[in-house]
Amino acid sequence: MEIREIQKTQLEFDKEYFKKFWDIKNEKIFIDRLQYIVVALVGEIGEYANIVKKISRDYENLNRNNFHQKREELVEELVDCFIYLIIAANLLNIDLEKEFLKKLEKNKKRFEKYRDA
User: Fold this and answer.
1) Percentage of the chain modeled with pLDDT above 70
2) Exposed, middle or buried by CB within 10 Å (0-12, 13-18, 19+), for 28?
3) How far is the CA of 96 from the CAs of 2, 58, 115, in angstroms?
């Protein structure tokens, strides 16, 4: 599935399950929605970071099963972060695929000095 399709699928899901969120009548409501998404995203990043902290702290005592479980928790939190990024892009009407490719080209120039280093 391409990013455009992911964005479309997420938007369809959101509009079906969270209709009120997408009922944006003015700029104040729009800003409130942006703020909500940022807080939610930062919360998910915090949960991801907390798992990384625990893995790092408990590394010596983690057995393979615990490490696998922690990895699965990381995957879930990272996907939650991705979902909120997709929602933010949809809210801002951003074509993430297009914007990613533009930014990648900028980064290729910016980081050329690190190539093959």
Assistant:
1) 97
2) exposed
3) 10, 37, 25
Residue 72 CA, chain-centre distance (Å), reads 16
For tokens 């939650």, what's the residue? 80
Query: Domains in the chain: how many in total?
Result: 1
SS3 94: coil
Reply yes or no on whether the pLDDT at 69 is more than 90. no
User: Counting every residue, how long is the chain?
Assistant: 117
CATH of residue 37's domain is 1.10.287.1080
**What is the 8-class DSSP label of residue 90?**
H
CB 74, CB 52: distance < 8 Å? yes
Print the domain residue range for 72.
3-114
Q: How far apart are CA 70 and CA 45, in angstroms?
A: 15
pLDDT, one tens digit per residue, over 26-64 is 999 999 999 999 999 999 999 999 999 988 887 777 776
- Whole-angstrom Cα distance, residue 10 to residue 108? 30
Q: Which residue has the tokens 């990384």?
A: 52
